Amino acid sequence: MSLFRKVALAVAALAVLVLTGCSEQAYNMREGVTEISKEVYSLHMIVIWVCVVIGVLTFGVMFYSMFAHRKSKNPNPAKFSHSTTVEIIWTVIPFIILIALAVPAVKLLIKMEDSSNPDMTVMVKGWQWKWEYKYIDGDNDPSNDVSFFSNLDDASRQQALNAGKYFSGTKIEDENYLLEVDNPLVIPAGQKVRFLVTAEDVIHSFWVPDFSVKKDAIPGFINEVWTKVDEPGIYRGVCAELCGKDHGFMPIVVKVLEQAEYDAWLAEQVEAAKSGPDLNERTMAQLMTEGEAAYNKYCAACHMPNGQGNGPFPSLIGTEVVTGEGSVDKHIDIVLNGVPGTAMQAFGAQLTEAEIAAIITYERNAWGNDTGDKVQPQDIYDIKNGGGE
Amino acid sequence: MADHKPKGISRWLFTTNHKDIGTMYLVFSFIMFLIGGAMAMVIRAELFQPGLQFVEPNFFNQMTTLHGLIMVFGAVMPATVGLANWLIPMMIGAPDMALPRMNNWSFWILPAAFTLLLSSLFMEGGAPNFGWTFYAPLSTTYGPPSTDFFIFGVHLMGISSIMGAINVIVTVFNMRAPGMTLMKMPLFVWTWLITAFLLVMVMPVLAGAVTMMLTDRHFGTSFFDAAGGGDPVMFQHIFWFFGHPEVYIMILPAFGIASAIIPTFSRKKLFGYSSMVYATASIAFLSFIVWAHHMFTVGMPVKGELFFMVATMLIAVPTGVKVFNWIATMWKGSITYETPMLYAIAFVILFTIGGFSGVMLALTPVDWQYHDTYFVVAHFHYVLFPGAIFGTMAAVYYWMPKWTGRMYDEKLAKIHFWLSIVFVNLTFFPMHFSGLAGMQRRVPDYNIMFSDFNMWSSIGAFGLGLTQFLFLWILVKTCMLKKGEKATDQVWEGAEGLEFTHLPSPAPYHSFDTPPKVD
Description:
The complex is a heterodimer of chains A (389) and B (519).
Chain A: H1 2-21, H2 35-68, H3 84-112, E1 120-127, E2 130-136, E3 146-150, H4 154-162, E4 185-188, E5 192-199, E6 204-208, E7 213-217, E8 223-228, E9 233-239, E10 252-257, H5 259-274, H6 284-298, H7 300-303, H8 320-323, H9 328-337, H10 353-365, H11 377-387
Parallel strand pairs in A: 1-5, 4-10
Antiparallel strand pairs in A: 1-2, 2-3, 5-8, 6-7, 6-9, 9-10
Helix pairs in contact in A: 2-3, 6-10, 10-11
Chain B: H1 8-14, H2 18-46, H3 57-92, H4 100-119, H5 147-174, H6 187-218, H7 232-266, H8 273-286, H9 302-314, H10 316-330, H11 339-362, H12 364-370, H13 374-404, H14 410-437, H15 451-480, H16 498-501
Helix pairs in contact in B: 2-3, 2-4, 2-15, 3-5, 3-7, 3-13, 4-5, 5-6, 6-7, 6-8, 7-10, 7-11, 7-13, 8-10, 10-11, 11-13, 11-14, 13-14, 14-15
């Protein structure tokens, strides 16, 4: 079997190469930072080793047989074709091993699913393709609730696009590439935090590996999941359920702060929310600059940075809604309220008045649209609070 | 003359001959295998390095969706139906399938179905982009217009499969030669009979799911839309009630193939025949009560999760019995290593590795970490490529001499095997690591911490893809150029079964016009 030996050698060499080549890279489940995630990790390691041992024994017998019972060594085959005893043995033994695995799994699962008596609650809502976090303090006064959106950071977005010119030498070296956001979820250390997970449009999945938390975000339904992190730090996760085009571009970043720092952060957010929107009038140049930045962040994923649209996502250049006579109101209405039944979301609750005004102004004047229309934050505010639907 | 056959294109269009139909199924399956494989190459090229290099994320999603659909419904399933057509009548001593005209029809629906599906690539809005599992509401409210072509295509594939399955059931129950009792049937016939029952039970469920999608999309219903009182999770329950038996539909025939090949090349009877039959039946039964293990993160009640976890773990028992029986068949045999045997052994080992990751995935608490990562991708590719597809390749090498009357080129076939096995592992083994490290499925781009494993997977995939052209050449050389030495009637020294003991090589166009006597 010289061919066999050559191939075996090649496989072994390749395996060594792969393993040494990848020594810098993560290759196992992470232990995580919560009590639950550590227990999950140890159950994972137990079941891996159980599989390895069974595999070595089973394949060991098989390889021995392949070697010792080949025709040149064993020209006369045995005649047996069944044995009730061994068949019972190899039915019962796996059964016992499985029960031994199931017991700790059942215990752990019951513990993981117990989201009762949380210290605080955060609503997590998946959108195409961003997360919204809402802090519900339970005092029945909505003005004390804080909510914000969390988007992929601009740096990752830029690198993803630049990598298209990869062969001309742009190499991605950022270790948080695609795992960084503009506004992270912030939670306090040492508290049992319950997440109420839901979605706006399609199914997403909220996954933070370090907490061993993964729960589907389902439109119209609310799922519960919880964690208790003792170690302050920054933990990163991703959306785990295919949710459309930019499924790979909606990371989750959780910042765990000491209680005092967290309280200060929350107070600051509440304060900012209460101070009301920034409705200062802006010049055309300001609107265009702010508009370009906001457009690239919230709109370019579908309508493309050059406004030409992409597949089902319409072009914004010279189209009726953008450049048509007297179309400003329609344009504002679509951005605020979305187009039902399509991927066009309602941005009214997601973005500030200033952002929406800037985006609309930008869209109406960029890429040769040049309508000269100028929309001010105050206009948007008025439509949202009275004029509009 | 018994061997009269019609000439030209009408032979293939109008044929009711199980061998011709089997050949067409196999050829069709191979074409789909290459198309689905080409899509896999696009996926792996994009994932070769971090960053977006070759395709847009939306097109990437179309590729993953079509790759899955084509491989499942276009490559693996038709391949096993092709084998069933060729082999079941010869194995049970029947002259043909019981319903030959329906047999013709169930094949010819397939090219239409896949033309519809593939044509969606050229439509405005692109092909379906919601994954082969087409979860609502991504596939309903948010699906591209071509989704309707997909729905119609799936209906046609379902009709084709149901007709094929009915044909197998009727043939096996009515057309066995005198003396061929159920418990004397070759394991391949048994596994296919059980597969056929799975098919007639679950394909209508899939048809129901896509019909509900259609009415949700166009006729104002809200089966899967919470805003209208529906439930997106119900879609997943319905889909996986089809989807889990579906994975056994793809793998059970391969179990039957291994159970034919391993005894032949071990020159020893299959160990534990009746427990093999019962194990297959148990697996089929269990496959109906484990579907929600695909949905451990949707927020089921704890009791539901516990039930599905335990039921899923139970599948390891009958599957273990099968693996142990194959090894016991080899034990103290007199083994030689022709290509079919190599593939069968690789099937047993690599399928078992897929089984191990299956047990890991069954444990709900850890599944939360594995779910929707590349670990799952590694798992199901291990049971599908070195499982179902290696099983099919083993079958093709094993029975090709009986079909064509010529031996294939053993040396080339061995090269095909060794390249396949190296590349299949190079492609799919690193996916275990990238998945455990935290890389989620169905993304066109990823963090740099996953870049090495992805590069290896891509290199493996390119190699694996290219290697299959060698397979194509071996097939062309044997079947069309008619090169290779003449096969004996028994073909393999240890071969048993009516097709080897009672029929010449190549098997005549009409075989068993008078049934053989089986004792």
